[in-house]
Amino acid sequence: MSSYLDWLENESVFIIREAFNKTKNLALLWSMGKDSTVLLHLIRKAFVGQVPMTLVHIDTSYKIPEMITWRDEFVARHGLKLIVGQNTQALADGMGPDKGRLNCCGALKTQALLDTVKEHKLGGLLLGIRRDEEGSRGKERVVSPRSSSSEWSYKNQPAEIWHYYNLHMPEEIHVRVHPILHWTETDIWDYIRREELEIMPLYFGNEEGNRYRSLGCHPCTSTIKSCAANIDEIIEELKTTKTTERAGRAQDREDTYAMQKLRKDGYM
Amino acid sequence: MVELYTEPDVKKIVVVGHVDHGKSTLLGRIMLDTGKIPADKVEAIRKTCEEKRVVFEPAFFFDALQEEQEQGISIDTTRVNFDFEGHRFLLIDAPGHIEFLKNMTSGASEAEQGIVMVDCVEGIRNQTGRHLKVLSILGIREVIIVVNKLDKIGYDEKVFNKLATDLSELAEAEGLRCLSVVPISALLGENITKISDNMKWYEGLPLLPLILKLKEDTLDFTTGAEPFRMVLQDVYKFNDKRYFAGRVMSGELTPGMEVFFSPSGKVSKIASIETFPASDKTKATKGESVAICLTEQIFVERGEVVSSTKEIPEVETELVARVVWLSSDPYRADDDYLLKIGTNEVNCKVSIITTSGATKSQPSMNNGDIFDVKITADSPIAFDRLLSTANLNKLVLCSKYDTVAAGVINLKAPRIAGAPVADPNVIYEQGYVQRAMREQQNGHEGTVLWLTGLSGAGKSTLAKALERYLFNTGYKVVVLDGDNMRTGLNADLGFSAEDRSENIRRISNVAKIFLDTGFITVVACISPYEQDRECARKLIGDQDFTEIFMFCPLEVCQSRDPKGLYKKVSTGQVSNLTGMSSPYQSPVNPHLRLDSSRMTTMEEVSAVIDLLASKGVVKSEALVSQGAAPVSEAAPPTR
């Protein structure tokens, strides 16, 4: 093992294998974004090319349309099993960002995810969150147990010492496992470049000089001014940027502790 | 393509110390003064501080939770990558409140070095000392001591010097090397990136250059080339191929290498290292998560430690460790705990060793307490005693769903299972040659055949016949005959119930030694009590203990009376003869039941050899029915 990226990769593969061994019905929460797509690749690394689990996508119906097209093509081409979860009831009742961004995230993402976990009896989820994304994620454990209401008890998290992850859980608990928690945004791009991964074109600057740095629902996600048209240029840009990765995500700025509140209830 | 960092270049540093001594503030300050916090983030924190009507607090960069910011306390640990002058550091913030010790330990367990912070106004407090002890348990060997809030005492050099001496001594007492002591003000950013005008008396470097210097100052505590260790996480079967997945913890793995699995003791050879995308990988080193294929298909499961056949880990059921208790639920002597080392997990009991050496049973470990404990596991577990980067000397204890303690295995080993050892100073010395290695050399496995039955039931006769047969067919075999043992090792024992138990305890211990030497060990003794045979079975182990009930009607035994004992009972010269004046408890569920009043000795031998073949101890060529050894040579004289 020679490079820093190798070290990151090996650490993540270890975590994925631990989770797979200990968790009944483990699934990958896949948003088609750069992080969970890297995670999918790491799963292949862990299982010598296989993907021995289902992918879950929570579709709020507000996703940027290119994302859905890209998703379906990608899944078909790689022969992946995909579950699409959606809170159809809330959508029928007219839920949308105009009802308050945090309410909307709560219903269309958190609740939809929780319902999907219950419906498909998922014992655990692999999630591509990272500590450097925002403050409350910085406090996360690699393994985070969630009660039946999906709640994150951030004030009383279990001890996680060395590589001894706590994956023994009572039946009603599902675990969130975060194999790339220790990666940074730059690490992700470095790795995508090295492994030559297929990545959603929305991340690259268009003719108008705009690109998405973080992907989400179209009403609440804005592009950044950037001409970075390929991975090398994105990495260069990240070296000098003075803004945070999720600056284009409106829900983060609804109030000071918006993400903490969302995530306490089970938001990714 | 050149990547910026390689793994050994990442230094993982934890900041510890008592609550409110300024740990999060220091880390926030370092990030801020080196321009590592994006402008929009700084602005957001400035806004939050204004709303809360407090001065700009760098700690908020780490203390992101609402409760943390409102109460000015770190609840949980945070880890932040810090890239500086071409090096990457992982800065770990650890909460200082005793209630959050499990969070502090969680963060610190990833660190290689520590920064210990002390508030010069408050001085050394409870958690200062406790955190030093925890760092020591976690295997950290080097610290920088930082004395904070010098601005609050008018930058008094004398106060600093006194604290510097006291703290260094405290650290050294826990086996921590103190690299330097720095006076700072984290809130005001003094002596962080550059020397403050207010502390011209300080002759050392500011903190940041000292952190950079940590790389060169690091001592290698491991001794030369480390032995190969891989922990087995899982076995996958994809497309009719079996992959053994795990992580190389130290040393190096190459195809063609002969490997040893502990605790199972199995041996195989590495055929290939499998990767995605496929490649011709010829080597895997420390830290790599690998999938390997083996040349010989053996059955092993998660939890095994893979090593070379030359340098193998220790395997025990009992060990002594220093642990820190991390749960608000106190320790209870009667509780079952789960012991984790590597990827292995076994149920265990834990007892506290007090300083006087006796084990104490009262529950007396609460959150934050540090004790030496004896851990008695239900089944053997593999580990290394020495400090190495393989980390197989590190363990956690779990109760139900929570990790309740973290610890490190003490260098001195306790005695292995068997009778309780009267004196705690007796230390078991682990040998290098393991049973599986001997078995490999012998060409067969060892096992224990335990023949039980009345005097005259044919135990010794069968034992001798088996010994002769197996010896002639090339097996290592030994007979432990009850009466023979009573002429030497057990010469001091009579036939009271206590003496009979002691007789069995000694015989089973001798049998165990022969078993570990890879012998087929035939025990022939009356062993009349179920309880004693049960003890023998436990000591020897279920897998290796075959109970053979020599069943023969008492009248037949009496008529044979090979030793004239039944006759002596009738004339009153012998009392306590089993079956006459002393009870015999027949085995409830023996592996084999042989009636020598109806079978010839050769038929009995044949039955036992069949059983050994079914267990895989002897090869089928050895079967009597296959005519392995000439009957004229192998068969004992007919009765």
Topology:
The complex is a heterodimer of chains A (268) and B (639).
Chain A: H1 4-22, E1 26-29, H2 34-46, E2 54-58, H3 65-78, E3 82-85, H4 88-92, H5 101-119, E4 124-126, H6 135-138, E5 143-146, E6 174-177, H7 185-195, E7 210-211, E8 224-225, H8 231-240, H9 258-264
Parallel strand pairs in A: 1-2, 1-4, 2-3, 4-6
Antiparallel strand pairs in A: 5-6, 7-8
Helix pairs in contact in A: 1-2, 7-8
Chain B: E1 10-17, H1 23-33, H2 39-51, H3 66-71, E2 78-84, E3 87-93, H4 101-108, E4 113-119, H5 126-137, E5 142-148, H6 157-173, E6 177-183, H7 207-217, E7 229-238, E8 241-250, E9 252-253, E10 258-262, E11 267-274, E12 284-285, E13 289-294, E14 305-308, E15 314-325, E16 337-341, E17 344-353, E18 359-360, E19 370-383, E20 394-399, E21 402-409, H8 435-442, E22 447-453, H9 459-472, E23 477-481, H10 482-485, H11 497-516, E24 520-524, H12 530-540, E25 545-551, H13 554-560, H14 565-570, E26 592-595, H15 601-614, H16 631-634
Parallel strand pairs in B: 1-3, 1-4, 4-5, 5-6, 22-24, 22-25, 23-24, 25-26
Antiparallel strand pairs in B: 2-3, 7-8, 7-14, 8-13, 9-12, 10-11, 10-14, 11-13, 15-19, 15-21, 16-17, 16-20, 17-18, 17-19, 20-21
Helix pairs in contact in B: 9-15, 11-12
Order of helices and strands of chain A: HEHEHEHHEHEEHEEHH
Strand % of chain A is 5-15%
Dominant shape of chain A:
globular
Which CATH first-tier class of the largest domain in chain B would you pick?
Alpha Beta
Radius of gyration of chain B: 33 Å
How would you characterize the largest beta sheet of chain A? Answer: 6 strands, mixed
Indicate the multimeric state.
heterodimer
The major β-sheet of chain B equals:
6 strands, mixed
Return the domain count of chain B: 4
Q: How would you classify the helix and strand content of chain A by structural class?
A: alpha/beta
Examine the coordinates and then state which fold CATH places here, giving the name of the CATH topology of the largest domain in chain B: Rossmann fold
User: Helix segment count of chain A?
Assistant: 9
Number of beta strands of chain A: 8
- Overall helicity of chain B: 25-40%
Broad structural category of chain B: alpha/beta
- Annotation, overall tally of beta strands of chain B: 26
Mean pLDDT of chain A: 92
The rounded Rg of chain A comes to 18 Å
